Amino acid sequence: MRRDVRHTPYIWWLVIIVSVGISISYANTAPKNAGQPTEYEVKAAFLFNFAKFVEWPVSALVSTDSVLIIGVLAPEDVVDVFKEVIGQKVVKNRRILIRQYYWYRDIEFCHILFVGNNESKRLPRILNFIKNKPILTVGDQIEGFAEAGGIINFVLNDKLVNFEINPTAAKRLDIQISSKLLRLATIVDDDQEARE
Amino acid sequence: MAFLIRLTLSLILAGIFPMTVFGIQDDPDSTNILDLPIERLLNLEVVVSTPLKKNMKLHEATTAIFVLTGDEIQRSGYRSIPEALRLVPGIQVARIDANKWAVSSRGFNGIFTNKLLVLIDGRSVYTPLFSGVFWDSQDILMEDIDRIEVIRGPGASTWGANAVNGVVNVITKHSRQTQNGFLHLGFGSEEPGFGELRYGDKFGEYGTYRVYSKFNRRNNLVRLDGTPGADRWHTFQNGFRADWNISDADFLSMQGDVAFGTIGQMYSVIQQTPTLNFMAYDGTATTGIGNVIGRWEHDFSNTNNTILQCYIDHYQRDDVTLSGKINTYDIDFLHNLTIGEYHQIIWGTGYRFTQDDLDNTNVMWFTPSAKTTSILSMFVQDEIKLYSDRFHMTLGSKFERNDYTGWEIQPNIRMHVQLSRNQTLWAAVSRAVRTRSRAEDGLHAYTDVIQLPLNHRWWLSMNGTESFKSEELLSHEIGYRNQISSRIFMDVALFYNKYDHLRTYEPNAFKAGPVGDNLNFEIPLFFSNNMYGNSRGGEIVIDFSLTNWWRIYSAYSYLRIKMYLDEAALAKNPLYPYIKATPIADLAKGTEGESPRHQFVLHQSLEISDNLHMDAFLRYVDTLLKLDVPSYINADISFHWQYAKNLGFSVVGQNLLHTQVMEWDPSYAQISGSLNQRGLYGSVQWSF
Fold it and tell me: Given this model, what pLDDT does residue B270 score?
């Protein structure tokens, strides 16, 4: 004979969870996050600062008049945040232009290239495509970014956005990174150089 | 007791509630962040939108999933996969002896746990022999683990039969992340020496690879009666992985391992030489494994990609109880695509071919001794956005044909509601089955002896049968996740599982006859499906980062199993009354009492300074009633000191609260288990 089981405890739990959840959601809604920037807002601010603390070789600058192009190889929503926070802002007398690339072969000249995490498996091809061009590559939490030859990589340290810099890769392209930026970063070595 | 739990839970939740209301408020200066100095940006807490790898799956997931990151595993100092799984809520882990583990998800634990699917990089390490895992033969370079994803509850609609109560997915790092050299050497009281060497490099313009070699030695533990054990666990393993970005849209990976094990065994088995008798046996099993996996990923676009994976796996074991080899050939195809705005479809198909060749031993034999089986499977899943982005529904099913029970259909339906930016609610109903294993089909082994009238010892034997049906599960789950503040994350999952056709044993004859010069009295027991019941419980995880350098993670799991024998069906068997009084028939109580009702883990992760980390673990496991294993609390502590960028030292203490602790008593399975012991080891890591 099959006995039906009592459902009471199960329902008990449910009631607790849902009611607490709903109360939390009320407590959480409006005021929360108001003062707290989102991850990509802060990353945009970092890109702005990178532009401030990095000197490109002259060759990279003559080609364009007074703009600083940030190429973004990442999903739409990331691009939207970047456009909102730093698009058209002026740094070192240059107006920032955000340009989205849907495909790495579309990458044309840019000063900074932001490589989204979703592109990580294609990284070797991307870096090879822009090889020897004076582009400051910025990876979005891509593990092994520096080892593959990228220059700056964001890392998320709990809730803090930090970054790593591979100075040897920058040096190869004649990109000068200010000592201030280097001091704030975790320095990672580009293995090719280290081994040679 | 139940009331107590409810009360505790309410208190925990009630404690969280005020925290969210009056809790940590971050400074609200929302002045343009571009005006902030860069030093300030580094210390600015953000609302994480594309979550960490740890939480990546959690946001969207409509399952009770838990992710252990490689970093957490490394910091824990645990040196095997089962040990790392102790940190996962809803998973039961008990060390049976130095080389044997009982690992299960949401109950039904045992040496031969058969409701948990384990995969390493997409390769099933679940043996078709008894639908369990030979944990003594699964090893990996712990530093190569990218993450371990654990799904509690059925994953059958995508993973297939046997993913009944859970799926453990071990995923290793891309070889790009393991470049250059790495050496890890250590030794300690329970680990008399281990070494790991890895080297990674590039090949061509778009390829990277790594090769590794490792050895592990683990000391004998102490038997349950306090005498020294003979259960050492020595392994030697080598492997490689290569990843190659062959074109803009094609990614190729190859990997493989070869391993050898020398594994101490302590049995008290019943054997036939020529009459039946008990044999106490301390010996050694040797194992050999080898596998090669090839994987080809092709992207048609960002929302449309395919994966083709093939592997060959070889397993060989030479033991007094079980000897033989198993070869598995597997091919799987998966296609991910988004259709229009609302449908995200995954479908796939696979074929697995298994060949075994088993030697008859004096203890057990299989009929036939060599068998070839195949599994053909298909699955399709559609994730539908129903109402803006906030409400998703997933419908899916697996269709699988195996040689034992024919077609099995395992559907599920899942819902996901985004209540607010920080919280989600999900619910699911799914069906899963566990199909007949090789043992349930054709095993013959003596398992026990009982005293019946006639004044003779009657030997009980376990026999496979072609009438064994699949075990069935209908699972109901509900879950809730809340990123309460930027520092507190909570995850709650509740389940109610209904099982049917669970395994039982029934006699079908009395056999008495001469074997050599002696008389043998035997009651052959055959597998049948006359148990049913339910389990319910839940897990709650609270992850609290008090500061940037201090994190407290806690997980509580509750589990209650209720099993019933289908007495009406059993009564039809005229011989059943004879074994009814014996422990072997006490399956319902057995199943209920093999899993702890309460489990608790408290993990503190502390960055004492920039280069000194400490991780401390406190674990509570409730009584195992059936096995008379008392509840215990134990602690592990791991210190890591990064002396230089490429040189680090670790000191790890394990099972610190007891010199010896019993975690499991396997004596009913004719294995004489061990007490787990306090251990201390030190190691040095050098990157070059």
Answer: 81
Contact list in B for residue A190 (CB cut-off 8 A) is: none
| CA gap B165, B163 in Å, rounded | 6
Q: Say if residues B542 and B553 touch (Cβ distance below 8 Å).
A: yes
Q: Residue B517's pLDDT is what?
A: 63
> By percentage, how much of chain A surpasses pLDDT 90?
28
ipTM above 0.85, yes or no: no
Number of folded domains that form chain A: 1
Average pLDDT (A72-80) is: 88
Q: What is the mean pLDDT of residues B404-427?
A: 90
B407 min Cα distance to partner chain A (Å): 27
Give how far the C-alpha of residue B679 lies from the chain's centroid of Cα atoms, to the nearest Å: 23
Residue (of A2, A6, A9, A5) closest to B500 by Cα position: A2
The third-level CATH classification (topology) of the domain covering B185-687 is Maltoporin; Chain A (2.40.170)
Residue A180 inside a domain? The answer is yes
Domains in chain B: boundaries: 185-687
Q: Are A122 and B248 in contact (CB < 8 Å)?
A: yes
Token match 């996996």: residue? Answer: B293
What residues in A contact B50, CB-CB < 8 Å? Answer: 39-40, 117
Range of the domain at A112: 39-195
What DSSP state is assigned to residue A60? Answer: H
Single-letter amino acid code for the residue at B445: A
Task: Give Cβ neighbours of residue B192 (< 8 Å, ≥ 6 apart).
Answer: B217, B218, B219
If one compares B513 and A45, the residue with the highest pLDDT of the two is A45
The answer to the question of residue A32 being in a domain is no
If pLDDT is split at 50, 70 and 90, which confidence band does B412 have?
very high
A176 CA to chain B: closest CA distance, Å?
18
| Alpha carbon of A59: minimum distance to chain B alpha carbons (Å) | 27
Within an 8 Å CB–CB cutoff, is residue A132 touching chain B?
no
* C-alpha distance from residue B647 to each of A70, A195, B34, B684, B685 (Å): 38, 17, 38, 7, 6
Pairing of strands A112-115, A67-73: parallel
- Predicted pLDDT at B518: 66
Q: Is residue A10 assigned to a domain? A: no
Closest approach of A37 to chain B, Cα-based (Å) = 5
The answer to whether B9 contacts chain A (CB < 8 Å) is yes
* Model confidence at A4: pLDDT above 50: no
- From chain B, the residues in CB contact with A86 under 8 A are 34
Residue B256: predicted pLDDT: 96
- pLDDT > 60? residue A27: no
CATH number of the domain to which A181 belongs: 3.40.50.2300
Q: What is the amino acid identity at position B55?
A: N
Residues of B in contact with A41 (CB under 8 A): 33, 46
Which of B38, B52, B564 is nearest residue A49 as measured by Cβ atoms? B38
Is pLDDT at A120 greater than 50 in this prediction? Answer: yes
> Looking at residue A2, what is its pLDDT?
46
Q: Does any domain span residue A164? A: yes
Please check the confidence at residue B380 and state whether its pLDDT lies above 90.
yes
CB contact under 8 A, A24 and B20: yes
Instruction: Assess contact for B75 and B69: CB atoms under 8 A.
Output: no
- How much of chain A is helix, strand and coil, in % rounded to 5? 45, 20, 35
The alpha-carbon gap from A30 to the nearest alpha carbon of chain B, in Å, equals 10
pLDDT tens-place string over residues B650-677:
999 999 999 999 999 887 777 888 999 9
Residue of chain A whose Cα is closest to the Cα of B559: A10
Tally of CA atoms within 13 A in the half-sphere of A188 that contains its CB:
20
Max avg pLDDT among A51-60, B75-84, B160-169, B454-463:
B75-84
In chain A, residues with a C-beta closer than 8 Å to the C-beta of B179 are 144, 147, 191
Helix (H) or strand (E) holding A25: helix A8-28
Supply the pLDDT for residue A37: 82
User: How far is A70 from A116, CA to CA, in rounded Å?
Assistant: 13
